[in-house]
Amino acid sequence: MHERHRYLFIRILEACNADCFMCEFALSRDAYRFSLDDFEELLPKARAAGVHYVRFTGGEPLMHQDVVELVRAGTAAGMRMSVITNGMLLPRLADRLAEAGLAQVIVSLDGGSGATHDLYRRSPGMFDNGLRGLRAATALGVLPRVNTVVGPHNYTEMPRLQEVLTEAGVRQWELSALKLERSIVYPDPGHVREVCDPLYDADPRSLLVPLGKRFYGDTAEEQERYFTQSLTPRASKPLCHVVDDVIYIDGRFGRMYACSCLPHREADDDPSGAPLRENGRILLDTPTFRAHADFFRERGPELCGGCSTTAAGYSDDVSRLGSVPPWQY
Prior knowledge:
With 329 residues, this protein is an alpha/beta fold. Helix content is 36%, strand content 16%. The protein contains 10 helices and 11 strands. The strands form 2 sheets. Strands 6-5-4-3-2-1-7-8-9 form a 9-stranded mixed sheet. It is globular and about 55 Å long.
């Protein structure tokens, strides 16, 4: 019997109002929307599969015209609901989302100020809106988290961002390494450690400490692999435990995956993951899905090249402790 609650990620749209240089969804106007009907069909299957946490991703989920009702439906079904957003629309929607039962909000912030973050995201006003939305959501009882994509362009901003987020009352912070279709080069890895080690070594009673592993690795081996091959830290051997606890759904392509970090695009000749529907019905934990999860449980610690710091840390915590606190993924 599976003892830990599972996470269900749903990409509810691909449209986005930001122009982030590192993202394939920048300024997308894709018309796909995951429907309320689909979600209501999915919810009983999710409960039966042991899902307790549901996170909406995009694109920009707050552009979905039914996002509040989707949150309400999940809450009514007993789920703890979360949304990851660039924050631009959060100030105007925070009240409605909280009233619908939103449990956690994750805002993407990549710089220590609007002068840097808005430049990286090529979206004026996004930093201030994101912080304002986080404060509003926090005041309404929603758990506030920030996700940061960090690379050579902004790692020196992280100490300042740590102070800003601590002052704003943010409770969780993920630093994930920048991933591009090319090698990421840091001219001076030693300087990265000098600047960023104190982020992770800070006293959590006075500063917000990032979740999971260091984005450049906790061990000498992980750091060597990251700085020379651009391979992010991954779950430690022998097994990846994330795949037991995660179902990631790409609604547009009708496929599901055992980790939010795995490729989630249909390949023309070899689609990965597993189909969400069989004979027109939504089915989770199918034999195809379990085979997919089993493969990455055993091979992920040696094969995965795009793991996130929280996924790697989550798996290692399960390995060491057998359980993980809520919202640690």
